[in-house]
From TrEMBL, chain A:
Full protein name: dolichyl-diphosphooligosaccharide--protein glycotransferase
One GO MF term attached to the UniProt entry: dolichyl-diphosphooligosaccharide-protein glycotransferase activity
Cofactor(s) the record lists: Mn(2+); Mg(2+)
Enzyme Commission number, as recorded: 2.4.99.18
TrEMBL record, chain B:
UniProt signal peptide: 1-25
Region (Disordered): 321-347
Compartments reported by the entry: Endoplasmic reticulum membrane
A Pfam family hit: OST3_OST6
Keyword match DNA-binding: no
Protein name: Thioredoxin domain-containing protein
Residue ranges crossing the lipid bilayer per the database entry: 190-208, 220-241, 276-295, 371-395
Main subcellular location of this protein, as a coarse class: endoplasmic reticulum
GO cellular component annotations of the record: oligosaccharyltransferase complex
Organism: Arxiozyma heterogenica
Record keywords: Endoplasmic reticulum, Membrane, Signal, Transmembrane, Transmembrane helix
Length: 762, 414
């Protein structure tokens, strides 16, 4: 095949244009598939953590950067407060506010909320670009384009980057891919420029997500594997040492990280490999100068032995030193979260608060297929193919996939870090397949030759070529069909499972129309409008960020679970009887208590279902006062109906959840709890003497109670004349409210049935 | 007088008899417990009265476990819990051969087990206590009635923690204050120790003798490749889930039939599911490797493996040469020119290219007819399709899923 120079340039331009077109399509797909959440619901911040990030971003745009870094938040963790500026990863907020500032400078007055909502989709398109570059370095541009297309729509990544999911992960995966991309480039070329890119991206990553520890350990591990394989080269030396020094110094600039990189065990492997690399480089230098001087093979063998033994000795010595330093307290031991990855029972026994988070549960196999569809079986194929070549950058992908498939199996949230490598490895496999089967060049040539010399070609040859064409068509066609299904699968998953903001719950009316259950915002808005600005709201920590963000009231505990004891205190109050709880809440200055109750609607994630964790966490601190077993019925079950234990019925969590609930369907019939499918009878639910109901949302999902105030002489409400009156008033108004809403409720109950979507998500 | 004497004697002997029978009853249960190597009374319908008599009239406490030892009942916790209970009971017996506390002579208790041996024949005691779940562990304090018992929550904890919790509970409910009075005597498993020693010894010996061979093995690439791919396969099939949650290998439905898949349960699985899924992924992956690696190597007409390169005029695509290509690139170029010259118009050419190919291709197997290769490729594709289709159906057991393959109509609906 001979092409003229002119033809070649034309072909080149066509290829470039095609590539650009594909890239544009990938970007469009990656952004638009993440907009389901906005289209189906509205432009709203999702879930829990994003509300805190949103609140912090707002503060950053309103005040200055230094104020933000020095931010002491007295409105959370009351009465302790939180040194928020020093305990957060500022990368996300600063990026968002930077974008907002730039947009304002060029005259686009966009709301900061919209910047935050659209933040993740925009950055996911950047991720696609970085993955394209990374995969191109692994095999070729065809692989890169496939990988970019995969990462753009794969549900495993979309799960954390839909519009509105304004979380650290939204930017962190982009930075993860960028760091790896630069790292691979620098390993290949040994260029310091690329390494500086890797360290800067690493610094950005450290500023954005706690998961940066993954990079801190993966890159050294890659280098270690290369050393063990005897692949030491100057490129590796230059890129690793530059990355380590620059990256470590840069990462220490983040206030929350501080001196951790030299003081904690999580980071020690990077330091150890740095030292090891110096020794290996030194040994290599000696070997080189030695072998130049004499060519005696025997002495070379001796040198090799010395090298191997000193290598082993250094490794062992380093590990011993590490253990000693940890023992002496010079280096902090591994953090609980990190440790629980290796010893899988660790968290369950020692830190129930980590074990209680659903993100930290192990993954059953359906979740893998759900999140990646057919990429999941392409993934091992890709790894196998990489083994057959095994260049330095392939070792990286292999190490990454082996480690991360383990991590993802242990913790569902780490599925997020596995997804990019699945995309890359499977695109290697698929592009290799397409290289063979989607390549009809031979046939073109045959037809071309055939037309000129038809008389020469026999009939048999035509048949042969036809069969070849057919088999290629069938093989590649079947895979194109899988790709087609893959797109449908991804769209389906994104639409059904990952686009719910979980602040607003989707539900369906009997005629199939979509209806929204908006109890959370209703309740938070009520708090914002009807309570004193300084009032303190006690709720389980899951709702801390939302109360702070939406209701703007002071909370006791929130999703930044830095103080286990404080959380346990709230759990203890919820688990104890009314008098004791009143005492605890009074000591904490609490004005309102908020509980989430799903019994009317069948909302499974309510406080009564989380109640066991409250008990468990507080039992860990006060084993004498709270006893988990006393909440189980005699048959050892978790019951809430008449067979519940007295301790259970006395706890204020029970009382507040079911207060007035049995009367909802008539005086004596009792109410059926639709989450636990049990009948609650009026005689089971005791009266509240020291709290009174002030608000119950439309579907009873949020119930807010106020503590009865003590009178001037400090006596409890029970004995207070004035208080009794006010309680009576409150009760009256409540009864009316309940009566009024009862009729509405019965109607509504028939109308709505909760969608399963919220349950699909783990 | 005589009659009075007679009556007295009768009365005395009656009292004696009663006492003897009392003592005998007590003796029976205790000797039963002493005879058992774990110190556990096997409580059945027949001897239950006698055993319970100990509690009511002889100030013995009783820990009664309702359990099963058959797999047919489908109670995994029972099977797991039995050895823990045995261990505790045995430890108690070891320190207290007559089941009386060392510190407090009034404190005495026994361990008993009521066992379901087959699902068809459930003893009446289980009905007596209206049990809905087994295993259940009850404590009858001395002198208590039939339904005055404390129960221990077995379901809650697992593993070594559970045995400790049970011990704590036992101490609390019986009121043993001295910590040394009741300690668990963990049995040293000598067989394990011995086997470990043997393995360590043998392996060191092997390494010392064959260190060259082992070094070679360690350096073999395909061993590492196989190991990591198998590792990945198990990890993505939920192996860690089965390990951490300690799920059973398979379950049983209401009728007692074995089921392999936890139906409609997206977040849960059985142990065997991991193996099935890993097997499916493995088969599909192997077919894929077959298509990518083996078919092109077999194909006699496809001798110039670098044909795609000649199409890559664009310098933008950096196609990496595979390892063996690199080593024999010279040969390949020869082939290229050969085949290009002859244009593969004649079947003789195939034999020629085949010969030259034999030199550089790694496989020794060769198929003369190119048709067979094409057929193989198509068969591989169809197999892959059917395995994937079957897999999607398997997936639809776990979750209602619209994209199962055999129902292609559902796709046309879009």
């Amino acid at each position: 095949m001979s092409l003229s120079v002119k033809e070649k340039t034309v072909v080149n331009w066509v290829l470039r244009a095609l590539k650009l077109l594909i890239c544009i399509f990938v970007v469009v797909a990656s952004i638009s598939s993440r907009l389901f959440a906005v289209v189906k619901f509205e432009s709203i911040i999702h879930e829990f953590d994003p509300w805190f990030n949103f609140r912090a971003t707002k503060l950053l745009t309103e005040t200055s950067f230094y104020n933000f870094l020095n931010w002491f938040d007295s409105r959370t963790w009351y009465p302790l407060g939180r040194v928020t500026g020093g305990t957060l990863y500022p990368g996300l907020m600063t990026t968002a506010s930077l974008i907002w500032n730039i947009l304002h400078k060029i005259g686009i007055p966009i709301d900061i909320r919209n910047v935050c909502v659209l933040f993740a989709p925009i950055f996911s398109s950047l991720t696609a670009w970085a993955t394209y570059k990374l995969a191109s370095d692994i095999k070729d541009t065809r692989t890169g384009l496939l990988a970019a297309a995969f990462i753009a729509i794969v549900p495993g990544y979309i799960s954390r980057s839909v519009a509105g999911s304004y979380d650290n992960e939204a930017i962190a995966i982009t930075l993860l891919m960028l760091t790896f991309m630069f790292w691979i480039k620098s390993i290949k070329t040994g260029s310091i420029l690329h390494t500086i890119g890797a360290s800067l991206c690493y610094f950005y990553m450290v500023s954005a997500w706690g998961g940066y520890v993954f990079i801190t350990n993966l890159i050294p591990f890659h280098v270690f594997c290369l050393l063990l394989m005897g692949r030491y080269s100057n490129q590796i030396y230059v890129s690793y040492t530059t990355w380590f020094v620059l990256g470590t110094v840069a990462s220490m600039q983040i206030p929350f990280v501080g001196f951790l990189p030299i003081r904690s065990n999580d980071h020690m492997s990077a330091l150890g490999i740095f030292g090891l690399l110096q020794i290996v480089a030194f040994g290599n230098f000696i070997k080189k100068s030695y072998s130049q001087n004499n060519n005696n093979s025997n002495s070379n063998g001796n040198l090799k032995k010395v090298m191997v033994f000193s290598f082993l000795a250094v490794c062992i010595l380093g590990i011993l030193l590490l253990i000693l330093a940890t023992y002496l307290g010079l280096i902090a031991p591994w953090t609980g979260r990190f440790y629980s990855l290796w010893d899988t029972n660790y968290a369950k026994i020692h830190i129930p608060i980590i074990a209680s988070v659903s993100e930290h549960q192990p993954v059953a196999w359906p979740a893998f297929f759900f999140d990646t569809h057919f990429l999941i079986w392409l993934f091992p194929v890709g790894v196998t193919l990489l083994f057959s070549e095994l260049k330095n950058e392939h070792v990286f992908i292999i190490v990454y996939s082996v480690l991360c498939s383990y991590f993802a199996g242990v913790m569902v949230r780490l599925m997020l870090t596995l997804t990019p490598v699945i995309c890359i490895a499977s695109s290697v496999a698929l592009s290799q397949l397409f290289d063979t089967y989607l390549n009809f060049y031979d046939l073109f040539k045959f037809w071309q030759n055939g037309s000129s010399s038809r008389q020469n070609s026999t009939n048999k040859d035509t048949k042969l070529n036809f069969f070849k064409f057919l088999s290629k068509l069938i093989v590649s066609g079947s895979f194109i069909f899988y790709l087609y299904i893959f797109v449908y699968h991804c769209t389906w998953v994104t639409q059904n499972a990952y686009s719910s903001p979980s602040v607003v719950l989707p539900s369906q009316t009997p005629d199939g129309k979509m209806a929204l259950i908006d109890d959370f915002r209703e309740a938070y808005y009520w708090l914002r409008m009807n309570t004193d600005e300084d009032s303190k709201v006690a709720a389980w920590w899951d709702y801390g960020y939302q109360i702070g963000g939406m209701a703007d009231r002071t909370t006791l505990v929130d999703n930044n679970t830095w103080n286990n004891t404080h959380i346990a205190l709230v759990g203890k109050a919820m688990a104890s009887n009314e008098d004791r709880a009143y005492e605890i809440f009074n000591e904490l200055d609490v004005d309102y208590v908020l509980v989430v109750f799903g019994g009317l609607l069948g909302f499974g994630g309510d406080d009564l279902n989380k109640f066991l964790w409250m008990i468990r966490i507080s039992e860990g601190i006060w084993p004498d006062e709270v006893n988990e077993r006393s909440f189980f019925s005699t048959t050892g079950e978790y019951r809430v109906d008449s067979s519940a234990t007295q301790v259970m019925k006395d706890s204020i969590m029970y009382k507040m959840s079911y207060h007035n609930f049995p009367y909802l369907y008539g005086e004596n019939s009792g109410g059926v709890d639709h989450v636990r499918q049990q009948l609650i009878k009026p005689e089971d639910v005791g009266d509240l003497k020291r709290f009174h109901e002030v608000f119950t949302s439309e579907n009873w999902m949020i119930r807010i109670y106020k503590l009865n105030e003590r009178d001037n002489e400090g006596r409890d409400s029970e004995f207070s004349v004035f208080k009794n009156k006010s309680v009576a008033n409150d009760n009256n108004s409540n009864v009316e409210g309940v009566d009024g809403s009862r009729r509405r409720r019965r109607r509504r109950r028939q109308q709505y049935s909760l969608l399963d979507a919220s349950e699909l998500r783990i | 007088m005589v009659s009075i004497k007679l009556v007295l004697i009768k009365l005395l002997s009656f009292i004696l008899l009663v006492q003897i029978s009392f003592v005998l009853g007590q003796e029976f249960a205790i000797t039963e417990a002493q005879r058992d190597k774990n110190g556990i009374i096997d409580v059945t319908d027949e001897n239950f009265d006698k055993v319970f008599d100990l509690v009511q009239s002889h100030s013995f406490g009783l820990f009664l476990l309702f359990t099963t030892n058959t797999v047919e009942m489908g109670c995994r916790t029972c099977v797991e819990f039995n050895p823990e209970f045995d261990l505790i009971a045995k430890s108690w017996k070891l320190d207290h051969p007559d089941f009386i506390s060392n510190t407090d002579p009034d404190l005495k208790f026994l361990f008993g087990k009521a066992v379901v041996y087959s699902p068809k024949n459930i003893p009446d005691i289980f009905k007596l206590f209206r049990l809905q779940h087994i295993p259940a562990l009850f404590y009858f304090s001395p002198g208590s009635g039939l339904h005055q018992f404390e129960s221990f929550d077995i379901q809650h904890a697992s593993g070594p923690e559970r045995a400790n919790q049970m011990l704590k509970w036992i101490k609390r409910s019986t009121g043993i204050s001295d910590d040394t009075d009741f300690v668990i005597h963990q049995q040293t498993n000598w067989a394990n120790v011995f086997v470990t020693c043997l393995i360590v010894f043998c392996s060191t010996l092997l390494i010392k003798k064959n260190h060259n061979l082992i070094l070679k093995l360690v350096r073999l690439r395909w061993i590492w490749g196989l190991a990591s791919v198998i590792f990945i396969l198990f990890m993505i099939s939920g192996y860690m889930f089965t390990k951490m949650r300690q799920v059973p290998l398979a379950g049983a439905d209401r009728n007692g039939h074995i089921i392999y898949f936890a139906e409609k349960d997206f977040q849960n699985q059985f142990g065997i599911e991991t193996q099935i899924v890993a097997l499916f992924y493995g088969i599909i992956g192997a077919l894929m490797i077959f298509l990518i690696k083996i078919i092109p190597a077999l194909d006699p007409s496809n001798d110039n493996t670098t044909s795609s390169d000649s199409f890559d005029i664009s310098n933008t695509s950096i196609r990496s040469n595979s390892g063996h290509n690199n080593s024999s690139s010279g040969n390949n170029n020869n082939n290229n020119s050969n085949s290009n010259n002859n244009s593969r118009t004649d079947s003789v050419d195939f034999s020629f290219t085949k010969k030259s190919k034999k030199k550089n291709s790694k496989g020794n197997i060769h198929i003369n007819s190119p048709y067979l290769v094409y057929v193989l490729a198509i068969v591989g594709t169809i197999l892959l399709y059917s395995f994937f289709a079957a897999f999607t159906h398997m997936y639809s057991i776990k979750q209602s899923y619209p994209f199962t393959f055999f129902k292609l109509t559902s796709l046309l609906g879009f």
